[in-house]
Amino acid sequence: MTSPAVSTRSASEPVRSGTAHWLRSYVMMTRWELGSLRLLLPLIVALQIVIGGGFALGIGLFFDQMPARNALFLATGVAVVTLITVGMVLGPQLVGNQKVAGTYDFLWSLPVPRTTQAAAWLTVNSIIAIPGMVAALVIADWRYDLSLQVSPIIVPAVLLTIGTATLIGYAFAHAIPKPMITQMITQLLIFTILGFSPINFPPENLPDWLVAVNEWLPFQHMAAVVRAALTEGLVDNVGGSYLILGIYAAISVMVSAWVIGRRH
Amino acid sequence: MAGRDLPVTSTSALVVGSLTVTTGLRRWLRSYAMMLRFDLRGLGQWLAFGLVIQVLMGAGMAVMYGFYLGDVPPEVGAFMASGVPAIALIPIGLVMVPNMVAQQRITQTYEFLWSLPVPRLAAAASTFTVFTLMAVPGMAIALGVGAWNYGVQLSVSPMIVPAVLLTSLMTTSVGFGMAHAVKNPVTVNFLTNMIVFFVLLFSPIVVPIAQFPDWLASVHRVLPFYHMAQVIRDALSSGLVTDVGLSYLVLSAWTIVGWSATAWVVGRRG
Lengths: 264, 270
Fold this sequence. Notes:
Chain A has helices at residues 2-12, 19-37, 40-58, 68-101, 103-108, 114-144, 154-175, 179-195, 208-216, 219-230, 238-261.
């Protein structure tokens, strides 16, 4: 009974390809990812807002009087941290959950181009990250009385930052088979991002060798491009930061393409 | 089948009748020693791994706060260096202990552990001992790195022993009580993360409480975190802390709360 039905259908339907198919698959996958998070989605977005706002307020308690320069670094830095952590910490942990729950292999078996799955992932991460970023900025602006100057460059800066962070997270989350190791890497990343990268504080607070190390890591460059779009005179050589982020993005795309293209 | 079962049952009943139920201090100590071995073996590689993480975190925390502040004047440095040991102690009791119990629930060893023929208090005491021992190296490293990093001369007094023991006992007690009272492992994980967030950012541990808004300072006079920092700081410095007796009192009260919650959960059946 089943075999004729299967053969009839596969014979009558051509293999679909082309932009229309890709777009349709992309929309379906985005709905799929949003749907699978369901109730978790508003919770995660709310948590992002609380954590972003919490950081902006909490660090202020360490200072008797926070200097204006520190406040600007903190406000813009916290916004960047929310973007990075969604891409490089939350994202990989969600992929780890899929592996534990056994839905991971099922997802790969769906009849859609695998690039649409990556694109959908990027979209979902942006939906999660951007409200937290905005909240952090608004709260910090109110608390520290800043004069932020938002320029249109903010759009490419945020997209590049979240894109690069998501792709790096995507690459290692998919390349590493064990969710436990992914979990450990994400914890280590939070520690590095919050404590040892000049995102929330000016680089001159770090020892020279750590400044040199950070030149080669993506974190401070993510902060630089976003900061340059929000303030004036705080960042110089933003072009270099765009370049380094571009290189990181390209490498992550290649690793991701290799990971999602391979077969078991 | 029934015919074969019957004599077996009656024999074992006879054997049980001839045994005396052991009680008293000696049995308690023996049970405690056995549970200690059981816990250490059970943690296995985890123990070494946990220790390494603790040491790294302790050292990391000790320098991290300085990066945020930039130029650290000597008096602020003294506060930081004497505050980081408390920061290093908190995750053990309030994060690792609850998550360990949650893990036991997931792997279903939880019920098994309670079924062991040892006094339940001995089992709980063993957990406190293991995690206190685990906390000490990270705390010592945090203290050393902090003092070096901020160029602070700390004078360690013998009071450090009761201060650390009470602090550690308090956090493990509260963590233990929380993990036993809250049944859902996901909720436990969420709670511990929230506690870490709150402790690291919104607690007067590495900074003076005077910098806090009044309402938050009042909250912290009731919560244990500020008082943990107080008793440890008092044992490491002179002149920075006043009214340390009150802090010991508050910590003792929290320890009792933790033990009461644990005792209530541990003592009931089913």
